C-alpha cells in the first residue's frame, strides 16, 4: 500500500506542497486525497484522526503522522537534498510543531484559499484517491 498524504484541498499553500511532493517523488510513492473529499473523510475515520487536527496528514500502513512528523517523513523519501531535512526529527516534537503551527495558522491569510480542490493533470491523476 502506498503512503497517503491527506491535505487541505482549499489551501493554496497545501496545493503547492502537494505539487512539490509530486515533482520530487520520481518513484510515485505517495498518493493523495484532500481532507474535504469522501475518501479523505473515510481515511480520517478509519484511522481515528481527532477532528481538531489542522495539519497535513501522512498515513503509512497503520501509522498516522501529523504536522512536522508528517512533513519530515515525506521529505525523507523525496529526491535530492530534501531528504536531509529528516534529520530534524531529533528535535523534540513540541519544538518542531511551533513552526509548523505558526505556518498552518496563517496559511489562508498568507497564501489564500480556493473555492474547490485542484484537478490533477492526467499524468498524476492515478495518484489521487
From TrEMBL:
Any one Gene Ontology molecular-function term assigned to this protein's record: protein-disulfide reductase activity
Species classification: Bacteria, Bacillati, Bacillota, Bacilli, Bacillales
Entries under InterPro entries matching the protein: DCC1-like (IPR007263), DCC_oxidoreductase (IPR052927)
Domain of life, source organism: Bacteria
Pfam family, one: DCC1-like
Protein name, per record: Thiol-disulfide oxidoreductase
Amino acid at each position: 500500500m502506498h503512503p497517503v498524504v491527506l491535505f487541505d484541498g482549499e489551501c493554496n499553500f497545501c496545493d503547492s506542497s502537494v505539487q512539490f511532493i509530486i515533482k520530487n517523488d520520481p518513484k510515485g510513492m505517495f498518493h493523495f486525497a484532500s481532507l474535504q473529499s469522501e475518501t479523505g473523510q473515510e481515511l480520517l475515520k478509519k484511522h481515528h484522526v481527532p477532528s481538531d487536527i489542522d495539519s497535513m496528514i501522512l498515513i503509512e500502513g497503520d501509522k498516522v503522522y501529523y504536522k512536522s512528523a508528517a512533513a519530515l517523513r515525506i521529505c525523507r523519501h523525496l529526491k535530492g537534498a530534501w531528504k536531509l531535512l529528516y534529520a530534524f526529527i531529533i528535535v523534540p516534537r513540541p519544538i518542531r510543531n511551533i513552526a509548523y503551527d505558526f505556518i498552518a495558522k496563517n496559511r489562508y491569510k498568507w497564501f489564500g484559499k480556493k473555492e474547490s480542490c485542484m484537478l490533477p493533470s492526467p499524468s498524476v491523476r492515478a495518484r489521487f484517491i
